Amino acid sequence: MKVRVTVMLKDGVLDPQGKAIGHALHTLGFAGVQDVRVGKIIELDLHGVKAEEAHEKAGEMARNLLANLVIEDYLVEVVA
After folding, report:
1. Hey, CA dihedral for 10, 13, 17, 23, is it positive or negative?
2. One-letter-per-residue 3-state SS of 39-50
């Protein structure tokens, strides 16, 4: 079972990497970009589990290791 965990900084947390990318995009002429936030996507391949259990296990992994819950939020999706 393939699971995707998306980790993003919480609203209100400064994102210097996103700011740098936003600035670079403006410099390259992409003036319509309002805000850029940078995150990470972690794909997990969990064997021998069904979708509901895979979602639960990936959520536990995110809470314990993949995301810093003080400054980050996460989203778990079962993709295959």
Report:
1. positive
2. EEEEEEECCCCC
What percentage of residues in the chain have a pLDDT greater than 90?
99
- Identify which of 58, 55, 56 has the alpha carbon closest to the alpha carbon of residue 42: 58
Distance CA 59, CA 66 (A): 9
pLDDT tens digits for range 9-45: 999 999 999 999 999 999 999 999 999 999 999 999 9
> From CA 69, how far away is CA 3, in angstroms rounded?
19
Residue 46 makes CB contacts below 8 A (sequence gap 6+) with 1, 2, 3, 54, 57, 58
* pTM score, whole prediction: 0.90
Cα separation values, 3 from 20, 42, 67, Å: 30, 8, 15
